[in-house]
Every structure is written in structure tokens, then in C-alpha cells.
């Protein structure tokens, strides 16, 4: 800005009270000249600002996808290659338009929002991954979204996940409400949970990959698939129904304790040997599950807490049930443990997961020292 707009006005004498008439005429001329110069400066400023503003305004569509009111760019159609677009939960028409514009589906956000507002069925558009086409007319894009023909989703559940972790991942991938999963878990009969589970779903949600149709699948349907897969696996392995819960419990312990597949049959054997000798299992993963915290955060107080029913330092035998969903290799390890007299195992290298097994407590103490030496050397 110039001083013209910011400088304070000079103090002037009242022309009606002093000075000759010619002086007053001179003052009026000076004021007119100043007003003229001010007008010229103002016009120049408006031209400069207006030019920049016009440049920004005319390029606004390129920068953001939001067209100016005079023109809403639109593709003529009919559309090109398929492109998958994620519509967020609770998205407005403008948010949808921006997602589609960013993906190259529509030519401008404003063209889409106009078509969105003109289609009364647009309120039925559901969140999720929609199969769209590149360079579609906005009206066609809205019409396709309204069909809610979602792209199939792939949900992968890793081995060793707990029910809580499985639900978290399912909600994240499918967009289904967490409340739907909680309600399904509270009604185990609806998801086909066998009576052998005693009403507890833990360990019965089979890990693996599931193909889902978000517009058709539900929390009940997904959990039912997981339970069915577990039951089928147990039946295919010819495991008697009365042993299902124990097998899954042992397999879940093996799953959480064994990093490498070749170690799992040995861990399964060591567990069987300890159970046969009436020894406590002393499995940290079980204690951590019952305490509701990671195994790395266990304290001496946690290990001494007999109120934790999963505390295998305080209670003999197996914990009340599975502590996670075991994979096939862990179940097979329980069914076919490696022959041996091991009763102890310990990971001596936390980087590689190298695990050593021993038959005596003295040898186990030596391996404990090996672990401490590794920790000291690796910080």
C-alpha cells in the first residue's frame, strides 16, 4: 500500500474564516489534483491485483478441482479404464468429488457436486471402495456410485492374533461398525460357535485371507466364516470333538511362543512333558494375555498375581482357553510333537529368534545366561 491510504491528514485552517478568496480557489485545485492522483494510483492497483486475481481464479480448477462459477469442467465420457476409489465414511458430496477428481474420474469437483445434488438417490452412496472409470461425466459417476457396487475386499488375519486384534483389523478394512462385531461376539450361537468353546470365541477365529463384498457381507457373516474354517480344520484332522478346545489352547501357546516353524513341534513336546510331570508351564504369553498387556511389559508383580487365571506361573495345567488364533502349523505341531525329553526352551537371540531347548534346569540356566550375554552385547 502507498502513503496515500495510510498517512494522516495535515491540519488545515478553516477557509471560511481566514485567507483571501483566491487562496481558497487554490486550495480547491490542490485537493482536486490530489484526488485525481489518488484515483490513478487506485486504478493501477486494481489492474495489478485484478490481473493476479484473474490468473489465480482462472487456474483454480487446475489447482484444486474446484471450478469457477462461470464454468464447471466435465468429461464428455463415456469413460476409460477402471480405477478404484475409496469413499470415506461420512463423506459429503464435496469430499467425494475431491476423491474422484484426485483419481482422474471427474474433471472438476463442482461438476460432480452439481450432479450429486441433482440426483435424489445420492444420499444412498455407501462408504467403501467403488469401481469407477477414468474420465467419466459427473452425472454418470454419481449414477455409478449410487449402485454401491463395491470392489471385493481382501481381509488377511495373521496367525497369533487375538479376538480384539482381529476385530480391529476387520473394522479398519471392511468399514463395518465395531458395534456390529461386538454384538455378534455376544451372541456366539449366531456365528456358529461350537458348544466345546464354552461361549468364548478366542482361538476359534481362523487366521487367513477372506474375500468380502462390503455391500453384502456383515460382521455376523464374516465371523461365521472364521469359525466355520476352524471347525472344518479340526474335523479334517480327525480330532475328536471333545479335544477341540484343548488342542486349540495348546496350539495358541505354541503359536505365541514359537517364531520358527521348525521350533513349534519341539515347544509342543516340551509343553506335553511339563503337563505330564505336573509342572507349571511358566509361559509368559499366557500371563500377558490374562493381564491384558504385552509380554515385554510384564512385571514381577504380574507373575505373582494368582488372580490372573491365565497365570501359568501360579496355576498348573493349561490356561482356561486359547490365548490367540493358532495357524495350521501350530495345530499340526500339537498333534505331532517332535519326540524328546525337553522341558525348557528359551530364545537366546532376539534378532534371529534362535531358540534352544534343554532337558534339565541347569542347562536352561546356562541358556538364560547366553541370552543375558546377547542382551549386554546388543544394548
UniProtKB/TrEMBL annotation:
What CDD domains does the database record attribute to this sequence? Answer: MltG_like (cd08010)
Q: Tell me one GO molecular function of this protein.
A: lytic endotransglycosylase activity
Query: Subcellular location, in the record's words?
Result: Cell membrane
Keywords, in A-Z order: Cell membrane, Cell wall biogenesis/degradation, Lyase, Membrane, Transmembrane, Transmembrane helix
Broad enzyme group: lyase
Region described as Disordered: 1-32
Spell out the NCBIfam families in the cross-references.
endolytic transglycosylase MltG (TIGR00247)
User: What is this protein's function?
Assistant: Functions as a peptidoglycan terminase that cleaves nascent peptidoglycan strands endolytically to terminate their elongation.
Q: What is this protein called?
A: Endolytic murein transglycosylase
Organism equals Promicromonospora sukumoe
Query: Gene symbol?
Result: mltG
Amino acid at each position: 500500500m502507498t502513503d496515500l491510504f495510510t498517512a494522516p491528514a495535515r491540519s488545515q485552517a478553516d477557509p471560511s474564516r481566514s485567507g483571501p478568496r483566491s487562496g481558497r480557489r487554490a486550495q480547491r485545485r490542490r485537493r482536486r489534483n490530489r484526488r485525481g492522483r489518488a484515483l490513478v494510483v487506485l486504478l493501477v492497483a486494481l489492474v495489478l491485483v485484478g490481473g493476479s486475481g484473474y490468473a489465480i481464479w482462472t487456474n483454480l480448477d487446475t489447482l484444486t478441482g474446484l471450478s469457477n462459477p462461470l464454468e464447471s469442467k466435465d468429461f464428455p465420457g463415456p469413460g476409460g479404464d477402471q480405477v478404484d476409489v475409496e469413499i470415506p465414511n461420512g463423506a459429503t458430496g464435496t469430499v467425494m468429488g475431491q476423491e474422484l477428481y484426485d483419481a482422474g474420474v471427474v474433471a472438476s469437483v463442482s461438476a460432480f457436486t452439481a450432479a450429486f445434488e441433482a440426483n435424489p438417490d445420492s444420499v444412498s452412496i455407501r462408504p467403501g471402495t467403488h469401481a469407477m472409470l477414468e474420465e467419466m461425466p459427473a452425472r454418470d459417476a454419481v449414477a455409478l456410485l449410487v449402485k454401491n457396487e463395491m470392489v471385493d475386499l481382501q481381509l488377511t488375519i495373521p496367525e497369533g492374533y487375538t479376538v480384539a486384534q482381529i476385530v480391529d483389523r476387520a473394522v479398519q478394512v471392511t468399514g463395518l461398525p465395531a458395534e456390529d462385531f461386538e454384538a455378534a461376539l455376544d451372541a456366539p450361537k449366531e456365528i456358529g460357535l461350537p458348544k466345546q468353546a464354552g461361549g468364548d470365541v478366542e482361538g476359534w477365529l481362523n487366521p487367513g485371507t477372506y474375500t468380502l463384498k462390503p455391500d453384502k457381507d456383515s460382521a455376523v457373516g464374516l465371523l461365521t466364516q472364521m469359525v466355520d474354517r476352524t471347525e472344518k480344520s479340526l474335523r479334517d484332522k480327525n480330532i475328536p470333538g471333545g479335544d477341540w478346545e484343548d488342542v486349540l489352547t495348546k496350539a495358541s501357546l505354541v503359536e505365541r511362543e514359537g517364531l520358527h516353524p521348525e521350533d513349534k513341534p519341539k515347544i509342543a513336546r516340551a509343553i506335553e512333558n511339563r503337563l505330564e510331570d505336573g509342572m507349571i508351564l511358566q509361559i509368559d504369553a499366557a500371563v500377558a494375555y490374562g493381564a491384558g498387556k504385552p509380554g515385554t511389559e510384564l512385571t514381577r508383580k504380574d507373575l505373582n498375581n494368582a488372580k490372573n487365571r491365565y497365570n501359568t506361573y501360579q496355576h498348573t495345567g493349561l490356561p482356561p482357553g486359547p490365548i490367540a488364533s493358532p495357524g495350521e502349523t501350530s495345530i499340526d505341531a500339537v498333534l505331532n510333537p517332535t519326540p524328546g525329553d525337553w522341558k525348557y526352551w528359551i530364545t537366546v537371540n532376539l534378532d534371529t529368534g534362535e531358540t534352544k531347548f534343554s532337558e534339565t534346569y541347569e542347562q536352561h540356566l546356562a541358556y538364560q545366561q547366553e541370552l543375558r550375554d546377547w542382551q549386554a552385547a546388543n544394548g
